[in-house]
Amino acid sequence: MDKNYIIDQLKKQIENFETKTQTEKVGTVLEVGDGVAKISGLTDVMASEMLEFSNGIYGVALNLEEGQIGAMILGEFSGIKEGDSVKSTGKILSIPVGENMIGRVINPLGQAIDGKGEIVSDKFYPIEKIAPGVITRQSVNQPVQTGIKAIDAMIPVGRGQRELIIGDRQTGKTAIAIDAIINQKGQNMKCIYVAIGQKESKIARIVAELEKKGAMEYTTIVLAGASDPAAFSFVAPYSGCALGEYFMDKGEDVLVIYDDLSKHAWSYRQISLILKRPPGREAYPGDVFYLHSRLLERSAKLNKDFGGGSITALPIIETQAGDVSAYIPTNVISITDGQIYLESDLFYKGIRPALNVGLSVSRVGSAAQTKAMKKVAGKLRLDLAQFRELEAFAQFGSDLDENTRRQIERGRRTVEILKQDQYAPMLMENQVAILYALTNGFLDDVEVSKIKAWEADFQRYLDSSAKEVLTLIAQKKELTEDVVAKLEKAIKDFKDIYQNGN
C-alpha cells in the first residue's frame, strides 16, 4: 500500500478526531451494613439524590454530613464492600409511571415483580414532591363509594379526602380497603394499593381476590414485602403516591391505600437509628411527623384550572391494645380528615365491619354525600347513638317504658343491617333502599334473628322486580316524593310476598 496514502488517511483521522470529555462525581464507601452505607468524596450530592454503587445497586443520600454522607441502599447490600466506588447520578429518586402500570404488581422502584414481563416507560415522576397549594385545590364535593353501608352512611369519604382506618391487628382494616377497591368498578377511579412490610402470601391472596372480582383492571399494587430491606418499606408509600399523581395530573380520580403507615414509621426509625440520627419519643426520629404529613398532604382535589383530578388517601394505622393516644396514631389522626375506628370487642361479637360509630368521624365527606344517602343517614346515626346509650342502661333495669323498648329494638335491627360480609360491597342505590326501610320502621316487625335473611331476599327482589326504583335513585341521587312513593310501594309489595311465603 502506498506510503503517502497511509499518511493522508492518518492526517484525515487526526483532523476529524473529536474528544468527548465526561465528568463523573465519584465517592468511596467507608463502611456498609444493615442497608446503610457511609460514603466519602461526594461533596456536591443533593438530599434524596440517587447514587449508583459499582455493582449496579442504587442508593439514596439521606444524611449530608461534613466529610461524608449517609445513604440508604435500595436492594441487596451484601455485594457492597468498603472501598467500592459510588457515582452520583444527579437525579432525585424517581420511578417510572404510565398506563402500563395498571393491573401489575410492582416494587417501590417501579419494577415488575408479578412475572408478567418488564414494564417499559419513558416517563418518570419524583417520589418526593411538594403538595399542591391552596390555590390549586377545590373543596371535596364528590363521594367515594366504599360499598360498605356503615361507612357510606355515617362516615362518608369524598374524592380528595384523607380518611384514616385505625384499629388493632386482625380487626378488618385491610378488608375495608379491599372492599373499597372492589366497589370502584365502573366508578371511573384508578386504585393503588401500597403494601408496606406485608407478607407476600397475604398480598398473593389479595391479588387473587381482586382478579376474581375484575378489580385488577384498574388497580396497581406496590409491594414492599416483609423480606425486603427497610429502605423499600420507607420508599413504597411515596412511590405509590407518585404513580397516583401521574393519573391525577391527567385529570383522573385516584384512590391510594397505604397499608400500613405504622410499619412505614418503623422502617424509618430503623434507618434513622442506623444512621445515628438522634432518637426522640418512642425512639422515633424528630421528623417522623413530617414523614407522614408530606405524604398525606399530597392527596387533594384539584380545581378545574388544574385538571380537576384527585387523590383520595386511605392510610391504615395499627394500634396496640386500642391505644389511639400513642405517638404515631395521634400524629396521623391530626394529619387526616377523619378516622374509621375499628374495635376488637365488636369484631369478636360478630359485628363486622367492627366500626365504633362514636369514635369514628368524617370531617369533610358529608359535603360529598348524595342527597338520598344524607336523608337516610341522618336518622340512622341518631338511632344508633341512642341505642348505644340505652343498651348500657337497659342491662340494669327490667322495667322499660314502651318508647325506650322500641328504640332498643330499632337499634338491634340497625346493628344487624350494618353488618356486611367481606368482598360484598353494595351499590349506593341498594344501600339507600335498605336503610330507608330500616329508618322508617318497615323492619320493626321482623325478628332480629331473621334480619339478614330478610335483607338478602329484599335485595334480590329489588334487583329482579323493582329495578326501576334503583335506577331512579342512582340517576336522581335524591329521594323526591315520586322516588319515595315508588320505594315504599316496592317495600310493601315485598313485605306482602315475604309474609305470605313464610
Give an overview of the whole structure.
By secondary structure, the chain is of the alpha/beta class. It is 39% helix and 20% strand. It has an eight-stranded mixed beta sheet with strand order 8-14-13-15-16-12-17-18, sandwiched between helices. A six-stranded antiparallel β-barrel has the order 1-2-5-4-3-6. Strand 4 and strand 5 form a beta hairpin. Helix 10 crosses helix 11, helix 11 runs antiparallel to helix 12 and helix 12 crosses helix 14. The longest helix is centred in the last third of the chain and has 24 residues. The termini are far apart. The model has no long low-confidence stretch (mean pLDDT 92).
Taking the sheet with the most strands, its summary is: 8 strands, mixed
Shape: elongated
The first-to-last residue Cα distance is 110 Å
Strand content: 15-25%
Low-confidence stretches: none
**Oligomeric state of the chains in view:** single chain
**Count of DSSP H/I helices:** 15
Strand-pairing-aware structural class: alpha/beta
Give the overall average pLDDT: 92
Radius of gyration: 28 Å
Say how many strands there are.
18
Q: Which percent range fits the helix content?
A: 25-40%
- Name the strands of the widest sheet in spatial order: 8-14-13-15-16-12-17-18
